[in-house]
Inverse folding.
């Protein structure tokens, strides 16, 4: 198979509803996802994201347009062999135990039987599930455990393409951090990941690019890596009674901390920083410059700002 | 044959307590009856139609409505492979159950001084297997059309409509109507008797052709229906 990534051209999909009604779920979606890229898809509920995933996985037939993965149709068995999938509404054969489930999917994936048990155990461990959990019936799993097991299933066989639909849904904070680390590992291994998530911070942290989908259309595709250096906004307020620092002082303090002064107004200013460490450096720098910092509040992330500014996020 | 799919199907089928209870009932009750009415030999065991219905009910529809097919078809498994292997799993399962049932019955009949001939055993085993493979194929077709246990409802509808048409045809002296009714009930109970083979009589080739065509047509249609089905909760509602 060629390493051509995912190519989507003019994809259209309409659902027929009762009494002759129609709902256009996808309306001419075109995009290309390069091999090794982590690509996010965000948008409001009902935007067409799940339908988009369904078409990419070959579960839904588009009315028009095309999808190719490595130059092949998405339901080509050669594509399926290199694909991992974690659906949003995870439904499993609840009569199985965790290990059974993983070994079952290992076998379905056509992976070697000789390594089946060890691979299943390794997958469990990778997503932070204890070995004992593998022996437990799936019907006794909590929501978060189910999600971890589903993720383990998707990772079986080292897929080259990974489709993750709300992977961190119902997962505890430790699990979210673990998932993020796994995604970073996958990116290092050249895996192409398509991520659908409402957790914008999560998307912002892991994705190279993100598509904003609204009413079945891609409204914008944003490259996150380019702006990652100043991804978040920190609003800093200082004691009103103190003399207001001059703008040059604020700018110097920001530059020393690797941040950018967005605006300064009265007893407060807005800075763009890269991450938590950047925010800490900025506060240290401001205090060092004699600014009597009284309060520092993180504002919406860059992606949140972009999301809210596009029609996908409800902007007029 | 995909042994992973076959074993998973059998395990799935046998984890339902209701299904297990019904299977136990259909397994042991005929053995008890055959032991009591030992003069009739294995004939009292009946056929494997009931066992097949219990083990096959919701063969595809149950997976369709539960949503497990999305994960399964994300794997390199053809839909036709999935369907054929589920049909094989149920057919083999029922055949094995019928054989065990017959072996137990033969033992009990022997203890009551009524030995079973090898020919009688072979006919029973062969007929049971044919009914299992035929009925499971029809259930697979109906189950690919309707979610959950809609296949059983469709079987019931076929049975009722077929019966009514037969009666109406007879009363109204309309052979065509009666024939349609007969064909409808025949379609859901595909079978042919192996007795002529063992009795040295020429078998009914029409019956063999009818059986083979029902099984082939059912499976082919079921594959077409499954292949045309979209799999996504986004398309629901």
């Amino acid at each position: 198979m060629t390493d051509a990534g995912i190519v989507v051209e003019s994809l259209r999909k309409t659902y027929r509803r009762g009494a002759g009604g129609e709902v256009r779920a996808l309306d001419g979606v075109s995009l290309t996802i390069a091999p090794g890229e982590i690509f996010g898809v965000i948008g409001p509920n009902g935007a067409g994201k799940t339908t988009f995933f369904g078409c990419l996985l070959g579960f839904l037939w588009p009315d028009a347009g095309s999808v190719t993965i490595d130059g092949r149709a998405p339901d080509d068995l050669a594509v399926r062999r290199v694909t991992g999938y974690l659906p949003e509404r995870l439904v499993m054969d609840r009569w199985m135990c965790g290990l059974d489930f993983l070994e079952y999917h290992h076998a379905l994936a056509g992976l070697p039987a000789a390594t089946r048990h060890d691979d299943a155990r390794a997958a469990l461990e990778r997503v932070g599930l204890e070995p004992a959990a593998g022996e437990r019936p799936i019907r006794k799993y909590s929501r978060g455990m189910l999600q971890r097991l589903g993720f383990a299933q998707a990772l079986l066989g080292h897929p080259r393409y990974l489709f993750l639909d709300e992977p961190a849904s119902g997962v505890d904070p430790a699990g979210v951090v673990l998932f993020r680390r796994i995604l970073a590992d996958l990116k290092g291994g050249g895996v192409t990941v398509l991520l659908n998530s409402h957790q914008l911070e999560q998307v912002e942290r892991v994705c190279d690019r993100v598509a904003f989908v609204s009413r079945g259309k891609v409204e914008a595709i944003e490259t996150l890596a380019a702006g990652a250096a100043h991804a978040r906004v920190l609003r800093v307020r200082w004691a009103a009674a103190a003399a207001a620092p001059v703008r040059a002082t604020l700018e110097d303090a920001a530059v020393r901390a690797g941040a950018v002064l967005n605006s300064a107004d009265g007893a407060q200013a807005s800075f763009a920083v890269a991450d938590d460490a950047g925010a800490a450096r900025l506060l240290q720098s401001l205090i060092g410059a004699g600014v009597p910092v009284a309060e520092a509040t993180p504002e919406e992330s860059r992606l949140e700002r972009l999301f809210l500014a596009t029609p996908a996020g409800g902007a007029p | 044959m995909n042994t992973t799919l076959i074993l998973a199907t059998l395990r799935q089928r046998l984890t339902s307590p209701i299904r297990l209870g019904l299977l136990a009932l259909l397994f042991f009750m005929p053995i008890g009856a055959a032991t009591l009415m030992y003069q009739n030999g294995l004939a009292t065991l009946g056929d494997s139609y009931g066992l097949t219905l219990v083990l096959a009910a919701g063969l595809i529809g149950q997976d369709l409505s539960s949503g497990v097919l999305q994960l399964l078809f994300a794997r390199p498994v053809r839909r036709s492979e999935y369907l054929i292997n589920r049909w094989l799993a149920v057919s083999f399962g029922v055949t094995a159950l019928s054989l065990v049932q017959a072996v137990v019955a033969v033992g009990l009949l022997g203890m009551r001084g009524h030995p079973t001939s090898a020919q009688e055993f072979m006919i029973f085993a062969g007929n049971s297997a044919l009914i299992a493979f035929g009925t499971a194929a029809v259930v697979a077709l109906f189950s690919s059309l309707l979610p959950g246990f809609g296949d059983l409802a469709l079987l019931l509808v076929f049975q009722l409509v077929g019966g009514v048409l037969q009666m109406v045809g007879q009363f109204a002296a309309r052979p065509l109507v009666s024939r349609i009714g007969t064909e409808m009930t025949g379609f859901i109970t595909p079978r042919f008797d192996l007795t002529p083979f063992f009795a040295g009589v020429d078998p009914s080739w029409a019956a063999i052709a009818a059986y083979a065509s029902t099984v082939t047509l059912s499976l082919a249609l079921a594959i077409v229906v499954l292949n045309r089905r979209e799999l996504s909760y986004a398309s629901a509602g």
